[in-house]
Amino acid sequence: MELDQEESSSEEPEQSDVSLPDDPESVMASVSEQKPSEPNVWKLSMHVVTWNVASAAPPKDLSDLLQLNNQDLDLDMYVIGLQEMNSGIVSFISDTAFEDPWSSFFMDVLAPLSFVKVSHVRMQGLLLLIFVKYHHLPFIQILSTKSTPTGLYGYWPSPAYSVSCLRWDLGSETPGRGNKGGVNICLRLYGYYVSVINCHLPPHIANNDKRLEHFDRILEMQNFEGYDIPNILDHDLILWFGDMNFRIEDLGLHFVRECIANQYYSALWEKDQLRIAKKQDLLLREFQEGPLLFPPTYKFDKNSNNYDTSEKRRKPAWTDRILWRLKRQPQATSYMSNPSTYFFLTLKHYGSHMMYYISDHKPVTGTFDLELKPLVSAPMITLMPESLWTIENDMLISYSSEPDFLSSPWDWIGLYKLGMRHINDYVSYVWVGDNQVSFSNNLHQVYMNISEIPDTEDYFLLCYYSSILNSIAGISTPFKIPLRFFLKEDPLSEEEPQTPEHTGE
Predict the structure, then answer these.
(1) Where are the extended beta strands (E) located within 254-340?
(2) β 237-243/42-52 pair status
(3) Separation of alpha carbons 104 and 421, rounded Å
(4) Is 382 helix (H, G, I), strand (E, B) or coil?
(5) What are phi and psi of 438, to 5 degrees?
(6) Inositol polyphosphate-related phosphatase domain: from which residue to which, for each copy (predicted)?
């Protein structure tokens, strides 16, 4: 948590009259640019969360933050970034060996809703998580995770460096050094390149130049040499959010608080350091943001909605922000020049959540509609649970592969209960190369031992993990494992096995 040194103000500078805020609907319309009408596009809904949690543990209920009770919202993806997680020595070692409390909390809430954690990266107090509905898994490839410390602000100081690795989320951590900087996940979504960055920039109103330097430093360090990944500026989408620590310049404390009390937020916009910087920095100008139609999210007395009443009386500011940058701005004739490519992001809602009191920051969320023409629309592997056979303690699994799919001896198939938390949350798994029993015309069969799986009425999924793609290449529809009580016939005979369905149960 930062201690601002120069933000209290005993003398108020001269101020102009307070101006009324712009109409919220017109401001939102100006942010979501007019887009052409595109045929045959798929729409995904994405919810982005950023929150400086000030070392606090998760509260009991985050339904509002995650929009769980919004009946009009059918989300496909959550992107969650936290800053200032508890990163003391004991806590960090514990979180490295086990899931940290925040990750566990989000999985507990989202897994029953069919969301799977596909990737995460942590650098001391920074945490970035991505969840998707399970049916999207074959179309998401995690290409890289990266940690970029930007200075000597951590408990374990070191020169700025970057840690990178190619992996799907197999439970590993990337412990970084320093509690300022950024963490990034680079992925392919239906064939499009997407980079997600969660950052924590230097505090204090006088450090604006340093914030911009760190912003540039984080962006420069997102290189992917040797991985056949384009430069980050060539990615179709960059999502950048976090505690950016930009402050409100010049205006005095009393004036700022009066504007907030009367919801005259537009009177503060011109002195917002990020908005000022965007006018001067060509690259920063390419990043879009929704209108600031919510109260500044810092700094509050903990366990209250009162702005700082300590001796420092810090001036409120919009420190917590969500930005995005599209590589291509669609033109009215874009589908005519390149009919196979279309990728567009529309902001539907941008706001804060004032009901949470555990931190001196309020969380900020952005809900987006992502419209795209998928460059990849069919999975590389098709698993066929309808052809499952059980032989005593073995389950025979059939699957087909696309002609251009490259298999590996390290590929495996996992059996999961519906409601899986992450890719390591399997009930059982089998190495494809070691357990294959037949192969013909791209149709394969492997067997899996299920002797330790009790008879249950639960639904299951099968996932094929490709070690070459470093991702899930195929996923089955949900199914039930036939109870062994009903499997009395030889599955290799022509007769179908008796199941509850065949016996009328």
Answers:
(1) 288-289, 320-326
(2) unpaired
(3) 9
(4) strand
(5) -160, 155
(6) 42-376
- On whether both 217 and 275 belong to a single domain, the answer is yes
Q: Is residue 19 part of a domain?
A: no
**Closest of 26, 18, 43 to residue 290, by C-alpha:** 26
Shared-domain flag, residues 412 and 326: no
Residues of the chain with pLDDT under 50: 1-6, 9-22, 24-25, 27, 29-31, 34, 95, 153-178, 332-336, 485-494, 496-505
Alpha carbon distances (Å) from 280 to 154, 175, 274, 276: 30, 35, 10, 7
Number of independent structural domains in the chain = 2
Structural domain boundaries enclosing 470: 381-486
How far apart CA 427 and CA 109 sit, in angstroms, is 20
Q: Verify that 253 and 388 share a domain, yes or no.
A: no
Do 121 and 180 lie in a common domain?
yes
| Helix count and strand count (H, E) for the chain | 11, 22
Instruction: Report pLDDT for 288.
Output: 98
Residue 325's beta-bridge partner residues? Answer: 238
Q: 275 and 408: one domain?
A: no
Amino acid identity of residue 300, one-letter, is F
Is residue 146 in a domain?
yes
Six token digits for residue 79? 């992107």
Looking at 318, 340, 372, which one is the last position of a domain?
372
Q: Is residue 356 part of a domain?
A: yes
3-state DSSP assignment of residue 461? strand
CATH number of domain containing 292: 3.60.10.10
Structural contact between residues 320 and 51, judged by C-beta atoms closer than 8 angstroms: yes
Q: Which residues contact 392 (CB under 8 A, 6 or more apart)?
A: none
Task: Please tell me the pTM assigned to this model.
Answer: 0.85
Nearest residue to 87 via CA among 140, 156, 181: 156
Provide the edge-to-edge strand list for the sheet that holds 192-200.
163-165, 140-149, 181-189, 192-200, 237-243, 320-326, 288-289
Looking up residue 405, the CATH number of its domain turns out to be: 2.60.40.2840
Q: Please indicate, yes or no, whether residues 314 and 168 belong to a single structural domain of this protein.
A: yes
Give the separation between CA 32 and CA 289, rounded to whole angstroms. Answer: 9
Nearest to 176 by CA among 156, 192, 195: 156
Gap between the Cα atoms of 65 and 240, Å rounded = 19
Contacts of 37 (CB under 8 A, 6+ apart): none
* Sequence letter at residue 107: M
- Asked if residue 240 is part of any domain, the answer here is yes
Angle at 461 between CA 108 and CA 499, to 5 degrees: 125
* 148, 192: one domain: yes
List, in sequence order, every residue forming a beta bridge with 358; answer none if it has no partner: none
My answer on whether 243 and 333 are in the same domain is yes
Q: What is the predicted pLDDT for the residue at 150?
A: 86
